[in-house]
UniProtKB/TrEMBL annotation:
PANTHER family: HYDROLASE, PTHR39420
InterPro entries per record: CHP03883_F420-assoc, Zinicin_2, Zinicin_2_N
Protein name: Coenzyme F420 biosynthesis-associated protein
Pfam families reported in the protein's UniProt record: Zincin_2 (PF10103)
Superkingdom field: Bacteria
Organism of this sequence: Nocardiopsis gilva YIM 90087
Region (Disordered): 359-383
Length: 383
C-alpha cells in the first residue's frame, strides 16, 4: 500500500544539500555532537530526577538522506502491519478501497518522500521510537538521532556559539530519550494510538472525493492567509478523538523538552538567552511559501505544542515541584488531556491532590474527560 523504496528514493532525490562544510569541520562537529549528547544525559537526569531503564550511548549522527532513511524505517515498523491488515480485509470483503490503495502504493511513496524531503532540511534531531526488532534483544528499543548539517546550518544562521547551541539542542533531544526510556509503557501507548488512528482511516470513494475537494479549499484558504491544514481535512470524527490523545501526549513531551533545555541551560549553556531569543525569531520569521507549507502540513500546530506544553510543565513544577510533576509519567491515566494542558490546575487537582485516581474505561487507555473529577468532585467536562 506504500512503496517504501520509492519514498526513500524520492526523499533523497528532492532533499536540498546541506551547508558547505570542510571535512575537518564536519568531523569535529560530528565528534562534538556525540560528546555533548552524553554530557546532556547527565544534566537531564539530574534536573528531572528521571532514571532511564535501558543503556543510552552517544547519539547517532546523520545527514539529511540518513534522516529520511531512518524515518521511512520507523514508518514501516508502525504502519506496515496495519496497512497489510487493512489490505487483507479489503481483499476478503470487497469493501471500498482505502485512501492509500486509491492513490496507489507508488504515488503514496512519492508523497511520503516529498514530505520527508521538506522536513529533512529542518529537523535538528529526534528520538526515534520505532526501530526494526533486534533479533538478539540487546540493542536499545529507540535511538537518538541528530542531523548534523541542519544543526550547523542553524547555528550559522543564528550567529550563535556552536558549542552552546549544540549542547542546547542535545538537552532537548536527550529529554525525549529520557522520557521514553524511563517510562516503560509510553512507547507502547503512543504506538497503539497511532495504529488506532490508521485503522479508523477507511473512507468510501464518495467521501474520499469530498475530502479531496475540502483539501483544495483548505489550500486556497491558507494561501489567502486563513486558518486550516490538510491534517484536519482527512480526519473522521473517530480519528479526531484519537488524534486529541496523541496531541496531548506529544504536547507534553515537546513542552517538557523545551522546559528542560531552557531550565538547565543557564547553568551549562552561557549564551542560552541569546540562543532562545534568536531561535524563536527564526521560528516566527519564515517566508510566505514556507509558512504556507508549514501550515498545510500541520507544523504550526507543532510549534503551538512547544508553547502550550512548556507552559503546562512550568506551571505544574512551580506549584507542586518536580517530583509531583513526574507523576505524569506513572501511567496512561496520569497523562494530561489537552484541556488539562491548557488549564494545569485541573491536572493538579485530579492527579496530585486527589485521593485516588478514577479507573480508566476499557478501550482507550486513558481516563475519559467526563469521568475525571476535580478537587471538589466536580466533573471537568469537555472543552
Amino acid at each position: 500500500m506504500i512503496d517504501w523504496d520509492v519514498a526513500v528514493n524520492t526523499g533523497i532525490r528532492l532533499v536540498r544539500p546541506g551547508p558547505q562544510v570542510d571535512l575537518a569541520d564536519a568531523r569535529q562537529a560530528v565528534a562534538q555532537l556525540r560528546e555533548l549528547s552524553v554530557t546532556a544525559q547527565g544534566h537531564v537526569r539530574e534536573f528531572t530526577g528521571m532514571q532511564p531503564l535501558e543503556p543510552a550511548g552517544p547519539a547517532v549522527i546523520v545527514d539529511r538522506p540518513g534522516w529520511i532513511k531512518a524515518n521511512v524505517e520507523g514508518f514501516r515498523v508502525v504502519l506496515e502491519p496495519m496497512l497489510d491488515r487493512l489490505g487483507a480485509e479489503k481483499l476478503g470483503n470487497n469493501t471500498a478501497t482505502s485512501i492509500t490503495s486509491a492513490v496507489g502504493s507508488r504515488v503514496t511513496g512519492v508523497q511520503l518522500g516529498a514530505v520527508l524531503s521538506y522536513l529533512a532540511g529542518r529537523v535538528l534531531g529526534q528520538y526515534e521510537l520505532f526501530l526494526p526488532p533486534d533479533p538478539d534483544g540487546t540493542a536499545p528499543t529507540g535511538r537518538l538521532t541528530l542531523v548534523a548539517p541542519n544543526i550547523v546550518h542553524t547555528e550559522r544562521e543564528l550567529d550563535v556559539d556552536p558549542r552552546d547551541f549544540r549542547l542546547w539542542v542535545c538537552l532537548h533531544e536527550e529529554t525525549h530519550r529520557t522520557q521514553f526510556t524511563s517510562t516503560p509503557w509510553l512507547r507502547e501507548y503512543v504506538q497503539k494510538q497511532m495504529q488506532e488512528l490508521l485503522l479508523a482511516s477507511n473512507v468510501d470513494a464518495a467521501e474520499f472525493l469530498d475530502r479531496l475537494r475540502a483539501a483544495g479549499e483548505a489550500v486556497a484558504e491558507v494561501v489567502r492567509g486563513g486558518e486550516g491544514n490538510l491534517i484536519e481535512v482527512f480526519q473522521s470524527e473517530e480519528q479526531s478523538e484519537i488524534l486529541d490523545r496523541i496531541t496531548a501526549v506529544m504536547t507534553l513531551a515537546e513542552g517538557h523538552g523545551d522546559y528542560v533545555m531552557d531550565a538547565v541551560g543557564p547553568e551549562v549553556v552561557p549564551s542560552v538567552a541569546r540562543i532562545r531569543r534568536r531561535f524563536q525569531r527564526r521560528r516566527e520569521g519564515a517566508n510566505r511559501i514556507d509558512k504556507i507549507i508549514r501550515q498545510l502540513l500541520g507544523l504550526d500546530l507543532k510549534m503551538k505544542q512547544y508553547e502550550e506544553g512548556a507552559a503546562f510543565v512550568r506551571t505544574v513544577v512551580t506549584q507542586v515541584g518536580m517530583a509531583d510533576f513526574n507523576r505524569v509519567w506513572e501511567s496512561p491515566e496520569t497523562l494530561p488531556t489537552m484541556k488539562e494542558i491548557r488549564a494545569p490546575e485541573l491536572w493538579i487537582n485530579r492527579v496530585v491532590r486527589a485521593g485516588e485516581l478514577p479507573v480508566a474505561p476499557e478501550g482507550n487507555g486513558q481516563v475519559a474527560p467526563s469521568e475525571r473529577s476535580g478537587e471538589n468532585g466536580e466533573s471537568t467536562g469537555e472543552e
